[in-house]
């Protein structure tokens, strides 16, 4: 019989940590003397006490190893439990914010989606702005740990191909997760601090620099202003682009770089494919903006560079309303969001390595058609792609398309138009953030949507962030019988 107590113990500890982290925005509100600090005190105490009770009640089942079923439960349970309590400061502290809106905002933050239902950000208390940034920052490091520890072990979406590249977990999930978290967290903090210092050197205020550094490095995209990153121009956009790309590369390569091994960073096929794809898309977009929109060359390059990198990495910042750029570029933005960054990074969506494996499989099949008696196997990074990896990747593509289609239909049934439904489903499942159209596009947000639509999108964010299969397997009868 499946024992949920080890899962409850870990979730309880994380809830205690989440409650303790609410002290930071509490202090920010105290310093600003805006009177909103009690919201974080109440939410922090409630979250911490419930987490402590849960961990104490299940501490007698602590163990080094988790079964496969417990690992699936833990991965999904963490991403479901944390937003439930992370929503409380929005409900207690923002006037008129319902629990639905608070949960949507918290889920969007922790999954680093970046879709928001909040308006009036320019005048929002400092504590809530900091809390939004912290949620995305926590979500970013959480995503890396899940991608490096859990997904390879669970053989999800072809991630098992990276099982031997980073840390060999060998079933010892909890100790190895702590070790990996410690190593990656140091790198993550270093990159965040560097980003904040760069923003500050470019003229961004200290508070804005800290919050935007957290949401940039996590490729989350929450901004402190209703205009998103449009409140900053010029050098800030270039800085953001550099760090969005940095965060979209595999963090295990940074570990190797610190250990004196620089070659993997330049030779990794993911890195080359991601940077090459970004360069082509940006060059095309900038050319179109100059030729058809008449923008000055520097502005066209800067806006194409920033906004396409933001969508490609799943960050979701917008420095301008690219819905005015014409149908061709709007279509490019839609499909760029479905590419994503590298595995083992904070970025989201399909991930570039899956497209590489897909193209390798197609190439091998074409060669078999031309030479029926030959033996051709798809290869990735010089290695033969096993049937296990190939079938996992193909299953992921099918599930991704089907999931996006189901949520598109469900959103349409709530009364949304076709563009909003399809782009909203894609933005949620791929964890991109902004959709297309006048409602949820770069100039709007998700506030006008119905509560039902928001709950559907929150579910899509969770499913997409956990690579689909991790959530879906919980609804199979075989899982609970194992």
Tally of DSSP β-strands: 2
How far do the termini sit from each other? 8 Å
Largest sheet: 2 strands, antiparallel
Number of helices: 22
Task: For the structure shown, list the relevant keywords.
2 strands, mainly alpha, 1% strand, 22 helices
What does this structure look like?
With 482 residues, the chain is mainly alpha-helical. It has 22 helices and 2 strands. Strands 1-2 form a two-stranded antiparallel sheet. A hairpin with a 2-residue loop joins strand 1 and strand 2 (383-384). Helix 1 (5-21) packs parallel to helix 4, helix 2 (23-32) packs antiparallel against helix 3 and helix 13 crosses helix 14. The N and C termini lie close together (8 Å). The relative contact order is 0.11. Mean pLDDT is 90; it is low at 164-173.
Provide a quick synopsis of the model.
This protein is mainly α and 482 residues long. Helix content is 66%, strand content 1%.
Blueprint of the fold:
Elements: H1 5-21, H2 23-32, H3 37-58, H4 68-86, H5 88-93, H6 99-110, H7 126-154, H8 173-201, H9 206-217, H10 235-247, H11 251-258, H12 263-267, H13 269-291, H14 297-312, H15 327-336, H16 352-370, E1 379-380, E2 383-384, H17 387-413, H18 418-429, H19 437-440, H20 451-465, H21 469-472, H22 477-481
Antiparallel strand pairs: 1-2
Helix pairs in contact: 1-3, 1-4, 2-3, 2-7, 4-6, 4-7, 6-7, 6-20, 7-8, 7-9, 8-9, 8-10, 10-14, 13-14, 17-18, 17-20, 18-20
């Amino acid at each position: 019989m499946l024992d949920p107590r080890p899962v409850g113990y870990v979730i309880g500890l994380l809830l205690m940590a989440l409650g303790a982290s609410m002290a930071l925005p509490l202090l920010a509100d105290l310093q600003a003397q805006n009177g909103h600090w009690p919201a974080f005190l109440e939410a922090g105490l409630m979250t911490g006490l419930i987490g402590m009770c849960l961990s104490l009640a299940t501490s007698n089942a602590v163990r080094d190893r988790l079964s496969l079923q417990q690992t699936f439960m833990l991965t999904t349970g963490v991403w479901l439990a944390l937003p439930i309590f992370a929503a409380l400061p929005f409900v207690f502290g923002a006037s008129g914010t319902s629990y639905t809106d608070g949960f949507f905002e918290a889920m969007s933050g922790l999954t680093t989606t970046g879709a928001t239902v909040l308006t009036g950000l320019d005048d929002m208390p400092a504590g809530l702005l900091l809390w939004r940034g912290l949620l995305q920052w926590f979500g970013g490091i959480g995503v890396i740990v899940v991608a490096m520890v859990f997904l390879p072990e669970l053989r999800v979406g072809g991630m098992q191909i990276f099982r031997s590249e980073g840390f060999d977990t060998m079933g010892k999930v909890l100790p190895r997760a702590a070790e990996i978290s410690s190593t990656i967290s140091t790198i993550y903090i270093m990159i965040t601090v560097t980003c904040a210092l760069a923003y500050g050197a470019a003229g961004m205020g200290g508070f804005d620099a800290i919050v935007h550094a957290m949401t940039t490095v996590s490729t989350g995209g929450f901004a402190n202003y209703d205009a998103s990153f449009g409140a900053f121009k010029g050098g800030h956009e270039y800085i953001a682009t550099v760090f969005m790309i940095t965060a979209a590369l595999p963090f295990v390569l940074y570990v190797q770089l610190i250990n004196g091994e620089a070659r993997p960073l330049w030779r990794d096929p993911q890195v080359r494919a991601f940077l090459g794809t970004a360069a082509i898309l940006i060059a095309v977009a900038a050319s179109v903006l100059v030729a058809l929109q008449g923008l000055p060359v520097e502005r066209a390059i800067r806006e194409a560079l920033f906004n396409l990198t933001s969508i490609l990495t799943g960050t979701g910042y917008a420095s301008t309303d690219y819905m005015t750029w014409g149908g061709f570029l709007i279509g490019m933005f839609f499909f760029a969001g479905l590419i994503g960054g590298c595995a083992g990074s904070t970025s989201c969506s399909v991930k570039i390595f899956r497209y590489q494996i897909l193209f390798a499989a197609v190439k091998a099949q074409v060669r078999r058609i031309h030479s029926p008696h030959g033996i051709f196997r798809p290869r990735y990074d010089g290695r033969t792609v096993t049937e296990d990896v190939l079938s996992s990747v193909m299953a992921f593509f099918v599930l991704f398309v089907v999931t996006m289609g189901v949520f598109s239909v469900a959103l349409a049934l709530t009364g949304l138009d076709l563009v909003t439904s399809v782009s909203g489903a894609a933005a949620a499942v791929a964890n991109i953030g902004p959709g297309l159209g006048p409602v949820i596009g770069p100039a709007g947000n998700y506030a006008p949507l119905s509560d039902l639509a928001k709950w559907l999108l929150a579910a899509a964010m969770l499913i997409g962030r956990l690579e689909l299969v991790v959530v879906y397997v919980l609804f199979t009868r075989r899982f609970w019988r194992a």
